[in-house]
Amino acid sequence: MSTQPHTTTPQDRSDDEEPLLSVDDLRTRIRTERETIHAVDGVSFTVNRGETVCLVGESGSGKSVTCESLTGIVPQPPAEIIGGTVEFKGRNLLEASESTLRSIRGTEIAHVFQNPQSALDPVYTVGDQLVEAITIHEEISESDARERASELLRQVGIPNAPTRIDDYPHEFSGGMQQRVAIAIALAADPALLIADEPTTAVDVTVQARLIELLRELTDGGMSVLLITHDLRVAAALADRVLVMFGGTIVERGPIEALYSQPAHPYTRSLFDSYDGLSRRGDRSARGDIPTDGCRFRDECPHAIDACAGGDQPPFYTVDDRKTHGASCLYYGPEHDPAPILHDDAAVNTLIEEPTDD
Q1: Where is this region: Disordered (predicted)?
Q2: CA distances for 69 relative to 41, 85, 94, 129, 169, angstroms
């Protein structure tokens, strides 16, 4: 798979155009019998039209709960969205009625989940499920819907689509099931596609095809909010990257800037420990994450007393263009980032060295 960064600039967008999606101070907590988990704790970001924004971070960092909170599909209870705003096309989704959200889900905002088996009904053919997705969102004859369903399967790379349309999900491989799930998500031509680990558990050939498909979608004007563990996938697709840890965003910036100079100690740890899926070992073995101050301070080799207490540190810009920022007090006016930047992080290789694996 080529690891050259995705550098396409979103088209037809002026600097003063409103973002398609604007999330501000989103907070979601999950109550269990043992504790209350601050799964999303003050998350803010935007997604512009025709742009791919990628959320990266280890399991449990809050990526999926963040995206499921946007349209209210996070299970409530045990989850509860307790604050923030989610503006989509100028409308706050957190104040929208359930009927309004149902009209937006799948039509204007579509989700592709990590496990395609959960999105496909085993007792109906993929064609039946695609036709249903199409006819729910537009008035169209069944024959025309079936023709469009076949075209969607072809678009996502299913061979012999007119024939395979009558097959059941279990007759498809895992990679093909994922592509069928994407086809269903695309049925209503949404403005925003939220894709949760769409390339996980597929071989590298299928992964490359899915990456190419997602690139084509953004080139056609669709926006993508992508969740992934895989730093190479992010490098291949993202215009901007948001790094999450402990329910918060700790670093954000354009793909080239963030990958060439990861600024936050947590981001640097992801690069240092990169094994193909950006895993840093078992979360439980490293203890609980603090709920105040810098969430990463207990694992940070540079932590000082000032990192504890209060809120997560504010974002400080780390480049002259002011597009790359880190939530780390070492970039503030009273501290020197030199100790962090002089670490030997394994950077650059993910976007500079193509691989065939």
Answers
A1: 1-20
A2: 12, 11, 9, 25, 28
Q: Output the DSSP codes for 76-139.
A: TTTEEEEEEEEEETTEEGGGS-HHHHHHHBTTTEEEE-S-HHHHS-TTS-HHHHHHHHHHHHS-
Question: How long a stretch of residues is the chain?
Answer: 357
Number of domains in the chain: 2
Mean pLDDT (the chain) is 83
339: domain range?
263-352
pTM higher than 0.90: no
Same domain, 237 and 286: no
Structure confidence at residue 4 (pLDDT): 46
Q: Is 272 found in the same domain as 187? A: no
Three-state secondary structure call for residue 271? helix
- In-domain check, residue 9: no
d(CA 221, CA 218): 5
Pair 55, 148 in one domain: yes
